[in-house]
Write a structure and sequence with these properties.
- The protein is α/β, with parallel strands linked by helices and 372 residues long.
- The protein is built from 15 helices and 15 strands.
- The strands form two sheets. The protein has an eight-stranded mixed sheet with strand order 3-2-1-4-5-6-14-15, with helices on both faces.
- Strand 12 and strand 13 form a beta hairpin.
- Helix 11 crosses helix 12.
Length: 372
């Protein structure tokens, strides 16, 4: 199979779909790889390192999309990239289709086989290709929030850990999954007062066992969210419904009642965000203020630490890339139900129920289409 790796073009996105180590593995398996010029240069992987691994360097994304049987990316394809997809191609990347109708429609029109990292599962029902970026985003969310609390960034001037004789900052984390637990780890390390709210008692027990009395755990109710949000200096939105739009846990009315200079970091913004006042921002212009509350809603947070993120992502995706290349997409998905869960669009059909529901479109069970 010919595998293509284009250069990412989203704002301040420096990650790359395959590192040279991954290219070397594909070549060892008998496959060919084309990489766009300088695709990994910004994070220390120059053309020479890809050539040494056995890749061919091409000058443009056009050449990658025209030739590749499978395109491996990081972020969802932008409009110009979607226009280059064709029916015989497999796209393997993050998609986040539920809040993105234009992308969904373009992928349907392309006829391509589109497999989303964020809905691939494992034997325990977890999301192994989302987990490494959730770990990064969770840890970064507290870094970003602490910066936004500084007065020069519009915040209240609160130091999260405080100093002797002053109050600690109060951090509220909505969602106790991978993002939430990694955010808690960082917030605890900074000396903050941390509360996690989740609707799963099993998750709350897991958090209690991991962090003990360093974290307050609460079951998710409107009353609990409201009371904690009004007291918080920093709120981390870390909720996830796999493949679906994130639920709106903090509405506009509640934002108007929150502390002036408090901060909300919406890690769920890729799935539409979990605050009613959220809208996607970029690393160029990461924040905005609503009713005195600073919002940080960067849709590709891990892109800011691109070298670490790219390595972590490649570690997780490479086994699946090899499986798709070795067997072909259809056979690989028939043989591996966890990879099949990643299929979101197939030859003009939506194959993920949450995506179909989000857009009011019909979806077809992927097993039916592959059997045909």
């Amino acid at each position: 199979m010919l595998v293509g790796v284009p250069k990412e073009i989203k704002n301040h996105e420096y990650r790359v779909g395959l590192l040279p180590s991954g290219v070397r593995e594909l070549v060892h398996h008998g496959h060919s790889v084309v990489v766009e010029n300088n695709a990994g240069a910004q994070i220390g992987f120059d053309n020479a390192s890809y050539l040494d691994a056995g890749a061919e360097i091409v000058e443009s994304a056009d050449a990658v999309f025209e030739r590749a049987n499978m395109v491996v990316k990081v972020k969802e394809p932008q409009a110009i990239e979607r226009s280059m997809l064709h029916e015989s191609q497999t796209l393997f990347t993050y998609l986040h289709l539920a809040p993105d109708l234009p992308q969904t429609q373009d992928l349907l029109n392309s006829g391509a086989t589109c497999i989303a990292y964020e809905t691939v599962t494992d034997a325990r029902g977890r999301l192994p290709l989302l987990a490494p970026m959730s770990e990064v985003a969770g840890r970064m969310s507290v870094q970003a929030g602490a910066m936004c609390l500084e007065k020069s960034h519009g915040g209240s001037g609160m130091l999260l850990g405080g100093v002797p004789g002053t109050h600690q900052g109060r951090v509220l984390i909505l969602g106790g999954g991978v993002v939430g637990q990694n955010a808690a780890q960082m917030a605890i390390g900074l000396g903050a007062n941390v509360t996690i709210i989740d609707r799963s008692l099993d998750v709350l027990r897991e958090i209690d066992a991991r962090f003990g009395n360093r974290v307050q755990t609460l079951y998710s109710t409107r009353e609990a969210i409201t009371a904690e949000a009004l007291a918080a200096d920093l709120i981390i939105g870390a909720v996830l419904v796999p493949g679906a739009s994130a639920p709106k846990l903090i509405n506009r009315d509640l934002v108007t009642q929150m502390k002036q200079g408090s901060v909300m970091v919406d890690v769920a913004i890729d799935q539409g965000g979990c605050f009613e006042t959220s809208r996607p921002t970029t690393h160029d212009d990461p924040t905005y203020i609503v009713d005195g509350v600073v919002h940080y809603c960067v849709a590709n947070m891990p892109g800011a630490v691109a070298r670490t993120s790219a390595a972590a992502l490649n570690n997780a995706t490479l086994p699946f890339v090899l499986e798709l290349a070795d067997k072909g997409a259809e056979t690989a998905m028939r043989n591996n139900p966890h990879l099949l869960h990643g299929l979101n669009v197939y030859h003009g059909h939506i194959t993920n129920a949450h995506v179909g529901e989000a857009h009011g479109m019909d979806f077809v069970e992927p097993e039916i289409l592959l059997a045909a």
